[in-house]
Predict the 3D structure of the following.
Amino acid sequence: MSMSQKRMNTPTWEEALFLAVHRMIQAVRIHKDNNELVKASLKQFKKVLSSRELTDDLAVLIFEERFFVDGEKIRFRRELAGLIQVLVEFFRRRGLGGLSFGPSVGNASETEILRFMRWLVQSVEQDNPYTWLKEKLETTDFSWIGIVQEVKSQHITPEDDLRERGRLIYMHALTSVKQMAEKISTQGHAGVRKAKRMVQGMVDIVTKDDGVLVGLSSIKDYDDYTYTHSVNVAVLSLCLGKRIGLSRVPLEHLGICGLLHDLGKVEVPLEVLTKAGALNAKEWEEIRKHPIVSAKQILMLNASNDLKSKIFLAPFEHHIRNDMTGYPYTSAKQEVSLFGKILHITDVYDAMTSPRAYRPFAFSPDQTLSKMMEGSGSDYDPTLLKIFVRMMGTYPVGTLLEFNTGEMGLVMEGPKDSFGSHPRILLLEKDGQGGVKGGEAVDLSEKDPRTGTYRRTIVRSLNAASYGIQPVEFLYN
Amino acid sequence: MVSPEIDGKSGKDAVEIARHVISSLLLAVKMSSLYPEDHPLYKTALTSLQDHLDAFLEEYDELEFRVEKSQLFFEDEVVYKGEAKDGDLAFALFRDGITALVFQSEWEPWEVRLFVGIFSKYKSISEEAEGDIVTAMWEAELPHIQYESAEHILEADLETEFSLSESEDRTLGRLPPMREGNGPSLLDTAGGDPDTVDRPSPLPTIDMASTALTHEEIGALVEMTRREEERDAIREILNILSDLLIGKQDERVCDVVFQFLEEELHSCFARKDFEVTLRILKGLRRIYNLYEETQPLSRARIKELFSTASSPDFLSPLSDVFPTMSATDIEQAKKVLLLLPSKAVYALTPMITKSESTPVRKMLSDVVVALSAGNTDPFVEALNKTDEDLLHLVVPILGRLEDDRSSEVLIELATHKSERVRIEALRAIMARDLWVPEKIGPLRDDESELIRELIVEYFGSRRSESAEAVLLSFLQKQRIRDKESGHLSPYIRALGRCGSAKSAPFLKNILFKGGLISRFRGSALREAAAYALLDLENKESESILEHASQSRFAGVRSSAQAVLEGRGSQGDKP
Ligand SMILES: [Fe+2]
Ligand SMILES: [Fe+2]
C-alpha cells in the first residue's frame, strides 16, 4: 500500500496533463472566464505544460481508444481510467485524433488558452468539428497548439478485418486438414493442435458475424474437393451450431468434427473417389466404409480421450439419415447425435453445391436448399434443416444469378431480413480477357422510380463454381 | 526533457514490479509442475505472483508484456530474457504466436491459478500436441488475462513443412472448365451451362414462411441440445468400437481402440466411475463371447486388456478412492471387479489389508473368493507377499476356498508363528470343514488358550480314528496328576466325542485312578473321563461306567453316577 500511496502523490507528467485538460474542459463548459475554478484550472494547465521543456512539437494522440504521447502508449493508474475514458469520448465526438503542443506552449497567454478551450468545447455543435476548429485556428497565430484529425485504424473497417481474418483462417484450416490427412496416411497418426486453433479462430468469427463464414463456404475446389469440402462443412456447421445456441467449447468440437468428418476418405482408392461414371457395388462398398474409417482415424489422433470422445461420433454418423437409414449400419443406435445431424445437413449441402466428377453439374445453392427441403424428416432433422435454410436465405451468399436485364451477379450478403429474397448483388462484367470481373454493387430491392417495379428480377440461379467463379475472390477482395 | 521528480521514479518502479511479476510467474510455474495444488510451496509461489500483480494493478489498468522470441518487454524495457528453446517462458509464448500478454486490473485469483497451470502444462509441447497455450487460454476464457496472437506459426509451417500446399500458393483451388452448352452470354468463355441438366425450376421453390419454427420445434430443439449435453459418449463409443472390432481385423485399429479403452478404464477407476467401467468390460465380454470363431485378433486383445486391467499398477488407483466410497460405489465396484480374471486377486489382496473400511474389506474379500474359484495361485502368491502383521486379515479368505492348494497353505499357516494367524487359519480350517487332525495335532498344546479351545472343538466334532489316535497318544504321554492336570479335561472330553472303544481303557484308567485318595474325590479329570466314557457310546464304556457307579470309592462312584443321572441333559454337552 505504501508504494501506491507514494505514487499517488507523484503523478506522471502525462497524468498531470490529462488531469489538467480534463479539469479545464469541465470548468469552461460551465463557467465564465472570470470564474475562480476556471482560473485555477488555467493555472494548473500552464504549470504542467511549463514543467516540461519542449524542443519540438509534442503530439498527444488517440488511437484505438488509447493515448499516445510522443508516440509512446501511456498507461494510467486505475483511478484515472474513468477520466481517460471521458477524454477519449470527448475527442472522438469531435472527430479529433489528438492535439499537438508547440515548444512555445509555456508562453501561451491565458486568453489564448481559454479561447482555444472554448472552441474545443463548442466544436461539437458543428457539422464538421475538425474543419471548423481548423478554420478557427487559421484565423489566429497560435503557434503553441495544433489539432490532429481522427485516424481510423488502418482504414480497415471491422467487417473487412473480419473477412480478411476469416479468409486467412479458412486457408490455414484447409492446410491443417491436408496436413493431418497426409500425416495419417504416411505416419498413421497426427496431432490436432493446428486444426483446433483454426476452429477456435472460426468460432471467434462466427460469434461476431456468421455471414462471413457462410460466404467463405462458397469456396469450391475441384481438385482438392475433399479438403475444401471438409472446411466448408466445418464452417457451415459452426454457423448452424451458433444459430441453435451452442456455446464456445461445444462449437469448437463441432468444428473439429466438420474438419475431420471425411478423414476416412484417405483409405478410399483415388480412382473410386474421382470416378466419373456410376460406381459399381464394390466401389460403393469402398465409399461406404469412409465414416467408419474416419472414426478410426480420430481414435488414432494424438489427443486426449476426452477430446476424442467428443469428436468421434459425428463423423461416424454423418451419412446416417434422420430415419436411421444410410450408412454405416450400426446395430446399437436409435438416434443420430445432434452433431451428427448437423454434419449430415451441411455435408449434403456442400456436396450438392460442389462440382464433382461423377455428375455433370452442381446445383445452385437455392436449388440445393429446396431439394433438401424435400427430404425434411426422412433425410434431415426437420427443425435443424429449417434453421439451416433460414440461415442460408433464399439466395445464399455466392449464388450466381442471372437477371432479366441480361446482367449477372453474385449474391454479396447473407440474409439480413426478408430472408434475402432481394439481396445485395455484385454485378459481374467481362474483363476483356475471357474472364469476368466485379462491377457495380446493386440492391435487388431497388425499384425504377418511374414504373415502380424492380429494376432487376432474377431469371435463374446458377452454381458459380460451375462457371469457374470463386465468389470469395470477388466478394472478399 | 522529462522532469525527473515527476516521472522518473514511478516509471522505474513499474518496470521493477513488472520484472517481479515475471520472476514470480516463473517460480509459480515451476512449483506447479513439481507439486500438487495444495502444496505449501506451490501456494506460496502463487501468492507471491498474485502480490506482485496486485502491486502493479492496484495502480494501473493493465499490465502488458510484449513477446519476442526469447524475451519479454514491458514498455521498452526487457523484463525477461530467456533462450529460444523448448520450455522457455518467452519462447513458448512466441511459439504459439502470442504477441502480447495482458493482465487486467480486475483479475481474480482463479484466473491466475489457471493461467499458471496452462503455462506449466503447455510450456513444452510435442510436434503432434493436442493443443497449446493459445488453445488452452481460448477454452479457459480467462476474463482478465488476455493475449494477442497471430497465426505466424502456422504461416511458417506452410512454408517449410508442408509440400502439398506449395502449388497452391495459398490461392483458391482450380475450378474446372465446364462442358459446352447454352451458358449465359456473359460467361460463354467459361463453358456451358451444366445446370440445365436435371435441374428443378429456375426459381427457388422454398417458401421461407414454411421454415418458421413452430412452438413444438423450438421445444424439440431445446430438448435436443440438452440431450447432447447429457450424451453418454462412452456408451456410444463402445457401440461403435464393437462395430470396429468385429469388422475387418486391422492390427493398428485394434491397437488404437484398445489403447483408448485402457486409458478410459484407468481414468474411470481414478474417478470412481464404475458404471462406465462396468459398461466397457461387459461390452468387451460380449464381443469376446460373440465372435469366438471369427475375431481372433480382437479376442486376443480383449484378453490382453482384461489382463492389464487386473494388474496391480492398473488397479492401484482404487486404493485412493476406497476411503471415500459410498455403499453404492462399493456395490458397483464389486460388480466391476467380479468381471476381472483371477489374476486380479494378486492386486486386490493387499488392498484388503490396507483398507480401513469394513464394507470395503468385505467386498474385496468376496471378490477375491469369487475370482479365486478355479485358480487360487494368485491368492496364494499374494499371501506369500503379505506382511506378517497383516496376514491374519486375509487368512479367513482361505476358509472360503475349496481347492487342495489352499488347504495346504491353510494347514501350513495353522502352525504359523503369529498367534493371530494360527487362530485365523484354524478358524478357516473349521469353516471349510477341512478334516486334518494329524496335521493340526501339534496345536493341542498351543500357548494360546483360544487355539486350545478351538482344537478341542475341532477334535470333538466327529468320530474319527485319526483324531482319536492324535488325542490318545497326546494324553497318554501326559503325566496325569490331578492338581496340575485340570487343563487336560477338555481333551479328555473331546476324546470321548471322537474316539472309539480303543479309548475306553485309557479313560477307565483316569476314572479309577487314585480312587483311594480322598482328595481325588470330585476331580475334574475323573469327571471328564466319566463324561467321555458316556460320549463314547459303546458297550464297553457303558459297562465301565456301570462298574464305576458302584465303586467303593466315593470319588469314582459319584463321578460315574453324576454322569449317568445327567445323561440326556448335560451329558451330551461338550
Ligand atoms: Fe462423407
Ligand atoms: Fe463429407
Notes: The radius of gyration of chain B is 42 Å. Chain B has 28 helices and five strands. Residues A 229, 233, 261-262, 347 surround fe (ii) ion (ligand 2) (CB under 6 Å).
